[in-house]
Amino acid sequence: AQHELARKERLAAIGEITATVSHELRNPMGTLVSSVEVLRRSLHEPGPEARGELERIQRTVWRCVRIIEDLLEFSRRRELSLAPLAVDGWLRQQLAEQQGLGSVRLRLDLAAAAVVRADGERLWQAIANLLQNAVQAIEASTPQGGGEVTIATRIEGGTLVLSVADNGGGMEKTVRARLFEPLFSTKAFGVGLGMPLVKRIVEQHGGEVRVASEPGCGTTVALRLPLAARQAGTGDG
Length: 237
Ligand code: ADP
Ligand code: MG
Prior knowledge:
It is a single chain. This protein is α+β, with helices and mostly antiparallel strands and 237 residues long. It has helices spanning 2-42, 48-75, 87-97, 120-141, 173-178, 194-204, and strands at 83-86, 105-110, 115-118, 148-156, 159-166, 208-214, 218-226. It has a 5-stranded mixed beta sheet with strand order 2-4-5-7-6, with helices on one face. Strand 6 and strand 7 form a beta hairpin. The radius of gyration is 19 Å and the shape is globular. The chain binds adenosine-5'-diphosphate and magnesium ion. Magnesium ion binds at residues 129, 132-133, 194.
């Protein structure tokens, strides 16, 4: 029991440090994000090499920002701040600002015209994590005909189904079984907080996560969220 208590205290201390450090890293990373953007705009005709490097810096900086956001979200249990969210339009808007898909094609199949009560910031964090996993799965497997990610929405009864599908390498059963385990990662530089966070955020919204994945055929992750009460059961938007 003594031992268990010491372990819990240590974990709590680590959580505290993680929260503080990731919070402190937020501002300097924000500076980097905007400096790189200013630099990119001020170079009028950068050669292909310079442009490639700038894009790489930008993607890398964004990756760091996401890791920090994930650590922060994971180490602090915050209350959701819920508001009605018209999902399809919101998704289009968020995706327009999204960076770092590289050469992956993005297909949208938005047909829900749904409104959910959600914390947009958290929900986006979940979707951004799914997108990142999809892109990484594609980059690791180079599918024939090119990598493609499809984001789709549809309504099933009183539920919004928002799915992110990729044609990357898919998952072995052993990976699938540990998918939601914190710190589980098969990547050289993976943190292993993405899927646990996705699950936590979706469950905080009263929803659930379903995963379909076959080695060699890609992966589909479906977030199932309850429709806003006003809309549930009417079938229209
Ligand atoms: P990380 O991305 O840091 O490794 P995640 O929690 O996001 O952590 O994912 C855990 C593991 O699940 C990944 O390392 C990978 O093995 C597997 N995984 C997640 N999403 C996909 C996907 N779309 N395709 C294939 N494997 C995936
Ligand atoms: Mg991930």
